[in-house]
From TrEMBL:
The lineage of its organism: Bacteria, Pseudomonadati, Bacteroidota, Flavobacteriia, Flavobacteriales. It comes from Maribacter caenipelagi. This is Uncharacterized protein YegJ (DUF2314 family). It holds the Pfam family DUF2314. Residues 42-166 form the DUF2314 domain. InterPro entries: DUF2314 (IPR018756).
């Protein structure tokens, strides 16, 4: 459990969290960047709808016991002053049809949770999910929106720095 949490934290440098109601990114010394997205961003809003609508795909993969599937994470929205913050929850387990996991990123804007807290995911507030299938990202809808908005040079740097491979 600890191994996967550390792995996720180390590779998701740019996916730390997202805050609605802002623009650009917040850089933090020694911490992952936080990408701020306007809450009226149509592509990001559609990505969150797509993620929420496909959560059963995530659930089926989680319970499949497929050895090629690993590093299951869900991004959940938390209330914060001035907007909402979307934070990754790692080490996901399914317990009595509820997703439970550990806050995998240091929150910037919300005080509702802290890094390392164990929570039950609020399904109504799911904004993304992802896992690896043989080393390739499945899901990651909001990540793809951010990545697709990068210049070719930034995209190459992003890919080189975090090692994410998209299906």
């Amino acid at each position: 459990m600890k191994k996967s949490l550390l792995f996720i934290a180390s590779i998701l440098f740019m996916l730390s969290s997202c805050k609605e109601g802002s623009a650009d990114k917040t850089e933090r010394s020694g911490e992952p960047d936080v990408y701020n997205v306007e809450d009226d961003n149509a592509k990001m809003n559609q990505a969150m709808v797509d993620a929420k609508n496909s959560i059963d795909e995530f659930k089926n993969a989680l319970v499949s016991d497929n050895p090629s599937f690993e590093y299951f994470t869900i991004k959940q929205k938390f209330n914060a002053d001035g907007g909402d913050e979307h934070i990754w929850v790692g080490d996901i387990q399914l317990i009595d049809n509820d997703f439970m996991g550990i806050i995998a990123n240091e929150p910037v804007y919300t005080n509702k949770v802290q890094l390392g807290d164990t929570i039950t995911v609020n399904r109504a507030n799911i904004s993304d999910w992802m896992y690896y299938d043989d080393g390739k990202v499945v899901g990651g809808y909001t990540i793809r929106v951010i990545r697709d908005g990068l210049s070719p040079e930034e995209k190459a740097q992003f890919d080189a720095e975090n090692g994410l491979i998209f299906k």
